[in-house]
Design a protein that fits this description.
23 helices; seven-stranded mixed beta sheet; about 550 residues; Rossmann fold; alpha/beta; single chain; globular; GMP Synthetase, Chain A, domain 3
Length: about 550
């Protein structure tokens, strides 16, 4: 199973492979010695063979039969058929078999491409280990992974992909040898093109970034390393965040509608954005909650709403979303050389002289960042930024605890949105869910009674991911049980009453009571609305949010 390019740790995918074999849709013949008609090979250009991992083998029932080694090609079936102008039939095979066929019939030695047509991203002189690493990166990107985690251990290196917010162990799919662990980490660090990664330093945290092409698209990869085992054996864990850039290249923009907000929330958020000519707009949440994407969607909404160009300056560390319409400036820190460092504060001073309409200050981490964002806001600009905090109340507390004037901060705050990303259930293969004892203890007696009454009356509909068999057969979700992710959000609009109440240090309970008087609904309450509509699993909400 490890030879197939999918999530090998996912039992649903393994069962999909078994289904393909049982349906006689698994190609076992050796492609290195197969006889394939030249007229078939002429139908598939080399660039398409590389992009979609496909090789034509025959025609059957007026369909072109293609072999592939990746789950992703099934997702891209409609796109492949559109490009070829004919109907196709897909048959699964192993990665090694497909590579052998591509090498024989197209002289393709790597799946990775440069921007030039038909050129290989990984030079043929590159080591097999480096080629395997690139193949892993592309496989993760094709499979929709948001993160890759590489953790060395005594027997090799654990490889884990985060897909739809869930972590899958795909170690067996790559089987990197134990002796190669340090070489793998070293090779990945060499991909850095940001200039921030110190490739020789293994006893301290490191960060960097690079981009990889994926067909005609580009994936920006943010890299973080941290020493493990006390730093005595030069071993490091690597975390890679994959950020697709295809929407910007194609002209498609992030919109508030495709973030996943409810219609009611959208109306409030759009109204607040439109009516506020200056001030601070904060998005909060943990890492991977989609905060930066939401900020770009908010800015894009303003550009569309005012129907005229606006000068947007972003201060990023690093630049995660490439947007050619914006002035994007990368923070650069040179160790022990303050003059050569391009700090966020230096960028802001210059940005204010550039006549900006909107400033995106990537993240408020400390009082220095907060003061910089406030400076931009008080000079008459809309300023967007992010804060790592659990919810709106925690965001308020964190900002108020910073060493900055409380009155100034409260006067500039316009809106806080706190959000999480959750996996949407596939409506075609999901099944009814029965409350478990573990889930019951999450609720108060009153909440549980109301929930059970709603289920009994049919008002509430609890669902869960479908059975292995149903998911394996489902073409609507590509055999995953999920249909992507969307944001659940709580948001707070600041008014005079809220500002006055926060002028003195309040208790958490006092903040909560204050917000409730103003109709504030928590992210948990909004999440439960979605759970009882059968759109997400209850355990997913508990896993992602937790409950006080």
């Amino acid at each position: 199973m490890a030879e197939i390019k999918g999530v090998s740790g996912d039992s649903h995918f393994i069962d999909f492979i078994e289904e393909m074999k049982a349906a006689n849709l698994f190609y076992k013949e050796d492609l290195a010695s197969a006889e394939i008609d030249e007229t078939l090979l002429a139908v598939i250009p080399e660039t398409l063979a590389v992009r979609y991992h496909i090789l034509p083998v025959s025609r059957a029932d007026e369909r072109l039969v293609l072999v592939t080694d990746t789950h992703q090609t099934y997702k891209d079936r409609a796109e492949v058929e559109k490009e070829l102008g004919e109907t196709i039939k897909l048959i699964l095979t192993t990665e090694e078999n497909l590579r052998a066929g591509l090498l024989r019939f197209y002289q393709i030695k790597s799946f990775k491409q440069l921007s030039g047509p038909g050129r290989s991203f990984v030079d043929t002189a590159d080591s097999p280990l480096r080629s395997s690493i690139v193949s892993m990166l592309q496989s993760a990107a094709r499979g929709g992974a948001s993160d890759i985690h590489l953790l060395p251990y005594s027997g090799g290196i654990y490889v884990r992909f985060r897909i739809h917010g869930h972590l899958y162990d795909v170690t067996d799919a790559y089987n990197f040898p134990a002796t190669a662990a340090s070489n793998i980490i070293s090779l990945i660090k060499q991909f850095d093109d940001s200039g921030n990664m110190d490739q020789t330093r293994t006893n301290m945290p490191n960060e960097g970034s690079f981009s990889i092409p994926l067909g005609t698209d580009e994936i920006f990869v943010r890299m973080e390393t941290v020493p493990i085992n006390g730093g005595t054996d030069n071993m490091e864990e690597v975390a890679l965040r994959l950020l697709p850039q295809s929407s910007a290249k194609s002209g498609a923009r992030l919109t508030l509608e495709n973030i996943g907000y409810t219609e009611e929330d959208l109306r409030h958020i759009k109204r607040m954005l439109y009516k506020s000519a200056t001030g601070l707009f904060i998005n909060s949440g943990p890492t991977g909650a989609g905060k930066t994407s939401s900020l770009y969607a908010q800015i894009n909404h303003l550009l569309e709403a005012f129907r005229e160009p606006m000068h947007v300056v972003t201060i990023d560390d690093p630049i995660e979303i490439r947007e050619e319409r914006f002035t994007q400036v990368q923070v650069r820190i040179v160790e022990d050389n303050e003059k050569a460092s391009l700090t966020a504060d230096k960028i802001l001073v210059s940005a204010l002289r550039l006549d900006p309409d909107i400033i995106l200050y990537n993240e408020i981490r400390n009082a220095t960042d907060a003061r910089a964002a406030l400076r931009a806001s008080t000079t008459g600009h809309r300023v967007f930024s992010t804060v790592h905090a659990a919810d709106c109340i925690a965001t308020i507390s964190r900002l108020l605890d910073l060493d900055i004037p409380r009155t100034m901060l409260l006067s500039e705050l316009r809106m806080i949105i706190s959000q999480r990303l959750v996996a949407r259930l596939c409506p075609y293969c999901s099944k009814p869910h029965q409350l478990t004892e573990e889930e019951r203890i999450v609720f108060t007696g009153e909440e549980l009674e109301r929930l059970e009454q709603g289920i009994a009356s049919g008002e509430y509909r609890l669902l869960e991911r479908g059975s292995i068999e149903d998911v394996a057969k489902c073409e609507h979700c590509n055999h995953s049980g999920y249909k992507g992710r969307f944001a659940i959000a709580e948001f707070l609009e600041f008014n005079m009453d809220i500002r006055d109440a926060l002028l003195r240090p309040p208790k958490f309970s006092e903040i909560q009571e204050l917000l409730q008087r103003h109709g504030f609904r928590t992210i948990w309450q909004k999440g439960m609305d979605i759970v009882v509509r059968g759109e997400i699993e209850l355990w997913e909400l508990i896993r992602v949010l937790g409950k006080e």
